[in-house]
Write a structure and sequence with these properties.
123 residues, mainly alpha, Arc Repressor Mutant, subunit A, Diphtheria Toxin Repressor, domain 2, 2 domains, two-stranded antiparallel sheet, 6 helices, 71% helix
């Protein structure tokens, strides 16, 4: 099953929150993303059912290996795209917003070329 953009966003959020706090709950995800408890609950059920996350008895949410791979890919795209946009003169807020939209649709081929160019720009 192909993961939708919203699912990728949830996985990326879980990754970010787990790095910041160590322990992630549905309420933390809702607060971070600005989503309602029912929306987050439904999404967590779908992600759990598809094997992207586990939920412990105390409500802790963790990425499975499958979920972590996707979350790290999306997060990497987000940070690299944001950095690239800022280097070419885009303000920080716009760079972050645009990266958040593009990270889900950019092809691996284009992203890899952008990363290669970014590395060359840093030299």
């Amino acid at each position: 099953m192909t993961l939708l953009e919203s699912g990728e966003m949830y996985l990326e959020t879980i990754l970010i929150l787990s790095r910041e706090n160590g322990f992630v709950r549905a309420v933390d995800i809702g607060d971070y993303m600005g989503y309602s408890k029912p929306s987050v609950s439904r999404a967590m059920g779908l992600l759990k059912g598809d094997g992207y996350i586990t939920v412990s008895k105390d409500g802790g949410i963790e990425l499975t290996e499958k979920g972590r791979l996707i979350a790290e890919k999306i997060y990497s795209r987000h940070t690299k795209l944001t950095e690239f946009f800022k280097i070419i003169g885009v303000d920080s807020e716009t760079a972050t917003d645009d990266a958040c939209r593009i990270e889900h649709v950019i092809s691996d081929k284009t992203f890899n070329a952008l990363c290669k160019h970014l590395d060359e720009m840093r030299r």
